[in-house]
Fold each of these.
Amino acid sequence: MKLCGHTMGTPEKDIYEAISFFGELGLDGIEVRCADNGQMDLETIGDDEVARIAEHARAAGVAVACLTPYYRDFSSPEATEATLAGYRRTCEIAQALDCGLVRAISSNRPADGPERQGFVDAAVAGTRRAGDIAAEYGVRLAVETHSGQLTFSAAESAEFIAAVDHPAVGVLWDCYWTYVADEISVPEALEILGDRIIHVHAKNIKYDADGERQTTLLDDGLLDWCEIVAGLKSIGYEGYISDEYEKFWRPQLPEPEVGMKRNAAVLRGCMDGGQR
């Protein structure tokens, strides 16, 4: 397994600063938040800038592990074509960066009702077409487990990926969210998802006195990251664990120089066979 940092944890750093910082932390790679307020705006970035980023990453010894855009709308033929165009540009950029993964979103979760199945079917068909695009560029799509989406729980994620049934499409396992979805154990989640997992997000969770959910450092929450790492090893997972340090959304978290450094040490200790 390899470690990468997510630029959600470095909102005050540009892409070059984030790459250098992750190199200083000794991380193997970087996952890039791709949005107009992220480190890479896929709608405006030019090929020359992509080439400069690739060169900087090579010089820093940091691989571009994953690009993380926000395309998700399969609600109409027009929306689907726009979403697929976004995926095509993302995969083109990923190829130029020698990046093998693009984060994908199954689509926003629809309300229950007679139109729900049609919505799900459109998302499955659209994601399958996105998988065709990814395969053209030698890239895989990692569909995230996340609240508010069709792939919230481990079971929903496995069902969605099975329906898509494309070799270039797998699961981005965020066990924070599969825990929130149904509080199943790590072994249960891994049994459900198995070798569908092609990327992993790392964060931890606890609840305050009012029962409100809080994101925490990796060694300060309900999830045992050494158990998670051991479980991933047991199924032969060899991809990245990405520290999705949520500083962008939760500015109260310690600065990345403190929090991400600590998280990296926790994950390295777990990979070396440590116990919580």
Amino acid sequence: MKDLGGKVAVVTGGAGGIGLAMGQRFGQEGMKVVLADSDAETLEQSAAQLEDEGFDVIGVPTDVRDYVQVEALRNRAIETFGAVHVVCNNAGIGAGAEGALWEHELIDWKWALDVNLWGIIHGINAFVPGMVAQGEGHVVNTSSNNGGIAPLPGSPQYAVTKAGVVTLTECLYSQLQGTGVGASVLFPGPHMMRTRLFESWQRRPEDVPKTKPRQTPYITFDEWADLMEKNGREIEYTPLEEVAGRVADGIKADRFWLLPESEKFDADIRRRADSMIQRANPTYMGEVL
């Protein structure tokens, strides 16, 4: 898909952060945009923002955990714009678990898996058959350095789901060969971004309630950044517009690995690969913060 103009893009997790930035960039590319998010109020505001910028956009409230809602999202996009050419399975949450992995609540695991992994599976099943039938399309699944490359042991639920996204997308890419449909896996980094991930607990659905009270307060984005700095990690920020541009350019180039040009990423990849080749214990893991 060397030319995105006139095509239709669907972006989940589109009410803010990376998703909204992708929607804006797709609009700038001349695409028609469908934003989806479980936060209906913020979604409406974000769709209005893009509309005010002159883009052809609609917002469709969608909980990606529910396949019926994802099918409805697909149907709404096709009814409104006639087809779907790009799907960005971007919706994701931080489940907010704390303490040792073996003490994490099972309901936290369920929530993380349902959104971060099942949400992408739902997106693939709902949209890919139509793309294959039309002989054109592209799927972008959002992963993370945390899990996809160098897991942070302090957030195993997020890391596990994002590692699963990489393998899922590798399999998807291979099976799509010869169909005219491409697939990419997005690593937003290399540095921190001001997204709504740290606010996930504020929008936690009632059907996945915490089963025991937290022992520590939920951490904010700024508190996390301070903690990283106190542990000797220099904090840099990746502009959301840069990530969105990487996605658009990657789709046009039919590029699978949407990785930033980053010495940090390259070093993390090498450390993990070297550990496997040498049959060495995983010393590349981050600290348990």
Amino acid sequence: MDFNKAKTFIEVVDSGSVTKAAIKLFRTQQAISLQLKSLEEELELILFDRNGPKIVLTRQGETLYKEFKSAFLQMENSVYHMKSDKTSATGTIRLGLWMEQSTGYLPYIVTAFKQQFPRVKFEVLLGIDVELEKALLNNEIDFGFFVYVNNRKLINTQPVLRRKLILVTSNEYLLKRKRIRTIEDTLPLDLVDYSQDYASYSIWVKENARWLFAEAKKKIPTVSVKNDLVLKELVRQGHGMALIPEEIVKDELSTGAMIQLLPKKSKAVTLTIDVGYKKQRTKSYLHDEFLKLIISKNNLWM
């Protein structure tokens, strides 16, 4: 069998389209399509469902992809290990993250990895858990960073990052209200929170005053968002209180633009971020090294 056709087949599936594969392989779309057709004729198998523009594998195609991918990765790994020269290793690592992780955590881990593997490229997809999980299962990313993973039968996870959430409000907002002395005093305040699946205020109340949890859970945010930076800006402009990662608001706290509510009378909420990757997918040498690096560095973030 022509192994060049097999490699083209893998690249089309990984890229998600003939167009993207053609760009990566520096070939025309027509040449890629002809190779795929020739591979099917050679193997006497139908590998793709061609009812639409999206790449959809048949059951035979899915089986062949897994076998081809595993075999090529093993060959690639053998070559890298024989060379044992990280500076010459090339390839692409595709990551899926929340927006918040992309501004703080991502630059650090990319820099740390590229110090060892300078020729490796990264592609980043931003989204929330449900979007990232779908992308991981569809082979659109190699690793996802999740608050919560639904399909643990197919996805391995390991904690790599913890974020301390503290309850804050703006000084301007607080000046117009009575002094906040207890956790119960926070119940009437306007709330800016994450969307329902990630609501944090009720969790904070449950952690600190369990008897108020039922009432806190009924509280409807004046604004619901899925982004820490937007959350912070809404609070800074006087829209209420919110639980926000401490590192994001440290400058506002130091200048007095924001105030932490009840810092001595309440516990912060800790949010854990896991790295996730498919269980059945054979990791390449670069993917394996990337996973080792972020796990070795998690003492800085946990």
Amino acid sequence: MAENRILLEPGNFYHIYNHSNGKDNLFENNENFRYFLNKYFHFVGSIVNTYSYCLMPNHFHFLILVKDKQEVIKAFRIKKPKANQINENTLLSWIIQLFSNFFNGYAKAFNKINNRKGSLFNDSFKRKKVEGKDYLVKLIHYIHYNPVHHNFVKSIEDWKFSSYKPIINNNDDRLSRNEVIELFDNLDNFIFYHQQRPDDLYLL
């Protein structure tokens, strides 16, 4: 199945990512980065747990866990109190729609501020289902390593727009920090693991 057609099902992990259209940037300044991240949590924070993210000038990565079905239904009823009976297709379509609304909203704001026209993102957003603790651990590491891999910085610690430092400093309660640390057994192992170079950079 195409990576932009996979459904986001409750209770499953997904790698969410996309790239800018052509050679354009998604973010031109620090405020763009902050605005994008705040809009992300505003639109989808009620239906996903965020395990890691990294925003770079022309692309981004998120590792998310879609919340369980009852929590998603609860969020749906809050957003759409007049909706009739909810079926499986309605719920799954709504999850995708929330992400699409987020990306479309950011693109419109970005285009307006920068006097720009046309598509900002390269097609609809990509997503891959993620299974297994080992893969989750590697993917978190790879996402945080992205700015080093693309030569934006020399060290993971130097990049401001990823979840690495907020996880270490415990200063963003929007992240599933405790669950991430548990995947690495403890904070010391989390830090040690991230000091290594990933073996499988093709995942980036």
